[in-house]
Amino acid sequence: MKKWMCLLLVALLTLSLPALAEEAEKPSAEGGSAAESPAEAGETASEFRDFQYVLYLGTNDKDTNTPVFTEFQAMEKAQEILLRRFGGYTIQEARGGWIDEGKAYQEYTLVIYLSDTTLDKVHEVAAELLETFHQSSILIQQNLTRTEFYSGEPSAD
Hints:
Elements: H1 2-25, E1 50-58, H2 71-86, E2 90-100, E3 103-114, H3 119-132, E4 139-145
């Protein structure tokens, strides 16, 4: 049931993306599109396209539906894996819940945000997380975005 709920969420988000993309491409009052600043109007959109990957990692065992680790241990283990594989990450704590065969389930969930990487690398870390946290699946969202590591100075690009 949890897997189907995740798939439904992904389907709904996927259906809404084309409408959001069309809105972003509409011309703004300054010329160019609403998604870009006037300074970027002359640059090609592909120069700024990037993907942000969002992983939803449940922490209950897939077979027993009991926590694999304490919340503290789960966070530490995920951080260790992410630092080793990516050198950086953003992670948030969340609570997930679902009903399966009339019974309500709740679980501590880690929401992991990754940028400046590839889907192949995300799949590699997801495989390790699946095994470490004894999960049947991890929800992965791939969101088109623009990523910039701003340091206070205009970029030379």
